[in-house]
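[Automated response] Your request has been received and processed.

Submitted sequence:
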Amino acid sequence: MIALLLALGSSLAYGCADFFGGLGSRKAHVLRTVMIAAPASLTVELLLWPFLGASFSTATLAWGAASGVASAAAFALLYRTLAIGPMNVLSPLTALVSAVLPVGVGVLQGEDLGVAGLIGLPLALAAVVLVSAGGGAGTARPSRTALLLACGAGAAIALQLVFLHQAPPDSGVGPLIVGRAVSSAVTLAAAGLMHRRLGPEKPAYAMSATAGVLDSVANLLFLLAARSGDLAVVAMITALYPAGTVLLARGVLAERIHRGQLIGLGTAAAAVSLLALT
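Generated structure:
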């Protein structure tokens, strides 16, 4: 149950982070947004170090660095995807892609999900598909470029989660600190190389920093959840994060929620209830 609650918290934080990051990327080049978000995330993790502890073994450094490279790619691809929009279609598609790899890794590692888990996982996957449906009159259809970016962002997120899970369980927030330091360095280096193409627009500082802080909280909750529960279950619950993005997009941007998406949100609630029984 603790793992379930942590995963739900991670899902909510990821959904809110994606909304603010995508919104911020509509005001300036995506790299300008990530240049604020990534260091903000690193600051949060450094502040958590004295309270949660951290160790930096070779394995922690390796898996943390790998997660950092994946995180930098996920930041840039995801925020660019959500900036193109529509958020209420592309965010769930990203989540669908991001759920498949961690679930597969968990199953291959021999995690025993039980009957409730075997029913709940496909149901959760169906929920993500339903929330991804969008469509209908009055709902914008995403471009091919946006769809490709969403799939790439989902793959990067999946790799980040798998790499974090592989870090030693006694490493505290070490993998998060290493990962965020690497992703910040990669982002700043990319911004330096592309500075002439970033445009004159100033980033939305508050929204970008908020996205970074929320992403850091989401990563921490995921790491704690994965250490106390099955990766397959935790990853699938975390992949329900588009619910938060969709609801915020509806409330703030007045993006329409299709009937199928409402059914998907209800299906997600049923799936979480079943997964709680595992």
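Summary generated for your ticket: The chain has a mean pLDDT of 81. Residues 58-84 form the longest helix (27 residues).
If you did not submit this request, please reply to this message.
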